[in-house]
Amino acid sequence: MNTFRKNGARIEVWRDAAQLSARAAELFADIAVQSIEARGRFSVALSGGSTPKALYRLLADDAHQDALTETWPLTHVFWTDERSVPPLDPQSNYRMAREALLMHVPVPDEQIHRMHGEDEPARAAASYASVLESEIGTPVPVFDLILLGMGTDAHTASIFPHSPLLKDSFSNQTVAAIYIEKLRAARLTLTMRVLNHAHNIIFLVSGVEKAEPLRRVFASVDSDEELPARWVRPTKGAPLWLVDEEAARLLV
Ligand code: 6PG
Asked: What spacing in Å lies between the alpha carbon of 149 and ligand 1's midpoint?
């Protein structure tokens, strides 16, 4: 594994997606234990998409089940974003995490807080903001861990290039409903303000198609509305990017 710092971020380059997921599972467990020791609970926001699925499946396997037996009952699960679809829709980030992980681990149902993609987006966003306020706190919910991915257009969560969510006017929101023109679909997403208040942020980026956007994200530190993933700069600490060799091939 090759590790280095760039533009204030920590980057670990792993051979392939399997090694990257194994490292992510190890860090997930460490952060869970540390959070429970420090605060008596572990609040984590799960990313959607396909990359984290291997991590979620790993966390559900017997070895990790044993290691996390004490932590699942004290874990509170949230999402970074959700598609505006019902919970059992194949596109649902909740459904993916439920099938890969949550059905297999003893997190109490009342501690699994999905975004209601089936509801009218603005109402679902306001409702989720209330959930975050009551479950985690105000004025900004501080997660123990936020898992993020990065799209080939350098979006993260559901904050896409040139999103209005990159502008200050949204800075006091914690959850937003946003229509994504190119997808012709609405999304629910945590705002950058919430992402950047997390105790720990881990990006999972795998595959050759992510090499060019990753190169662009790390080519400068300037806030560029083309590259939302670059805007993830936590107020405390540094984001950790777990990338595989294919995705890292253009990083110098
Ligand atoms: C989503 C995700 C999104 C994802 C990126 C990368 O709802 O799709 O939250 O932000 O992390 O699109 O997805 P992959 O990891 O599948 O490439």
From this structure: 5
Q: How many domains does the chain have?
A: 1
**Ligand 1: does its nearest atom lie under 6 Å from the Cβ of 213?**
no
For residues 176 and 126, is the Cβ–Cβ distance under 8 A? no
Mean pLDDT of the chain: 96
Residue nearest to atom 13 of ligand 1 (CA): 49
Is 162 in contact with 231 (CB distance < 8 Å)? Answer: no
- Predicted confidence band at 222 (pLDDT cuts at 50, 70, 90)? confident
Distance between Cα 197 and ligand 1 center (Å): 20
251 lies in some domain: no
Domain that includes residue 124, residue range: 2-235
pLDDT > 90? residue 6: yes
Residue recorded with tokens 């459904």: 95
Amino acid residing at 198: A
**What pTM, to 2 d.p., does this model score?**
0.97
Question: Considering the domain boundaries, does residue 242 fall inside one?
Answer: no
- Ligand 1 center from residue 29 Cα (angstroms): 22
CB of 149 within 6 A of ligand 1: the answer is yes
